[in-house]
Design goal:
Elements: E1 5-9, H1 13-24, E2 29-33, H2 41-56, E3 62-65, E4 76-79, H3 95-112, E5 117-120, H4 125-136, E6 143-145, H5 148-163, E7 170-171, E8 174-176, E9 182-184, E10 190-191, E11 194-195, H6 202-213, H7 215-223, H8 230-244, E12 249-257, E13 266-275, E14 278-282, H9 289-308
Parallel strand pairs: 1-2, 1-4, 2-3, 4-5, 5-6
Antiparallel strand pairs: 7-10, 8-9, 10-11, 12-13, 13-14
Length: 311
């Protein structure tokens, strides 16, 4: 069976860590790409990771490059390129510079891998997915963003710590934008099949939701010179695995919604079925008035960001 080919654009912390997770899961051969200005960085990290394969027991060809020719005919392209947040910065502060970067990457990906599926990780996420879609010219089902899996993972981790149970038993659903704009749905959140409202007090749940919304900023403030990368990379690779192995997983992703949720043609976080075609279905869950209001507020913010970009 021929291995899938995965290109990861950006050899920084998120990209390199995604390469580690993907290699360890044997999802396919990997090309780690970065700009010519850092020539040697992607090649060195790729070689280092390949040399770990006999120890960890995974088979994958792992190469680094500062041009896109080696990425030709990739099945999946993960875009992590862009400036990370620094203390005091919001995701929106990255809009202008990362628009240029993501648009260029998406164009190159489309040129060399016209049948690929794109997963965007760069911030501000929901706007960057829109940019990648426009710049690539790909159908919307083949362009999606990683945010909901990460936010849900943070939410689940904090809830498991509060309850004192395994993270494996906590299942949560989030809608809307990334971070500050996320819309948690406690009605759809369970631990071992038990509604979260029976296990966590309303006040503690509100505190955990606030911490989840601030999850990225909390890590930025601690690191001081960068932003989160272990969890974002792991979340991205979970999506990649669902696509490459055609798992039909239901995962919250930034997907193109038109009539769905009455969004009107933007990428926002919604539960999706992921398989070999990318976003194979968007699942519309019933929302109560408060949830609907919060979701609409998140969508409005995405629209404001998209209105500011020029491609």
């Amino acid at each position: 069976m021929q291995r899938a080919k995965i290109t990861i654009v950006g050899a920084g912390n998120v990209g390199a860590t995604a390469a580690v997770w993907a290699a360890a899961r044997e999802l396919g051969n990997i090309v780690l790409v970065d700009v010519p200005a850092v020539d040697g960085l992607p090649q060195g990290k790729a070689l280092d990771l390949y040399q770990a394969s006999p120890v960890e027991g995974f088979d994958a060809a792992i190469t680094g490059a500062t041009s896109y020719e080696p990425t030709a005919d990739s099945d999946l392209v993960i875009i992590t390129a862009g400036l990370p947040r620094k203390p005091g910065m919001s995701r929106d502060d990255l809009l202008s510079i990362n628009t240029t970067i993501v648009a260029s990457v998406a164009q190159q990906a489309a040129r060399f891998s016209p049948n690929a599926i794109l997963i965007v990780v760069s911030n501000p996420l929901d706007a960057m997915v829109y940019i990648a879609w426009k710049a690539s010219g790909f159908p919307a089902n083949r362009v999606l963003g990683q945010a909901g899996v990460l936010d849900a993972a943070r939410f689940r981790a904090f809830l498991a710590a509060e309850i004192g149970c395994s993270v494996k038993d906590v299942h949560a659903l989030l809608l809307g934008g990334h971070g500050d704009d996320m819309v948690p749905l406690p009605r759809y959140t369970f631990a071992g099949g038990i509604p979260i409202s029976q296990l966590v007090s309303p006040q503690r749940l509100a505190d955990i939701i606030r911490r989840t919304r601030n999850g990225g900023a909390e890590i930025v403030s601690l690191l001081k010179t960068g932003s989160a990368y272990y969890a974002p990379a792991a979340a991205t690779v979970q999506m990649a695995q669902a696509i490459i192995r055609d798992e039909k997983r239901i995962l919250p992703c930034a997907a193109f919604c038109d009539k769905e949720y009455n969004v009107g043609g933007y990428f926002v976080g919604v539960p999706c079925i992921l398989g070999k075609a990318g976003v194979e279905r968007i699942i519309e869950v019933q929302l109560d008035p408060d949830e609907r209001k919060a979701f609409q507020s998140s969508v409005d913010h995405v629209k404001q960001l998209v209105a500011q970009v020029k491609i």
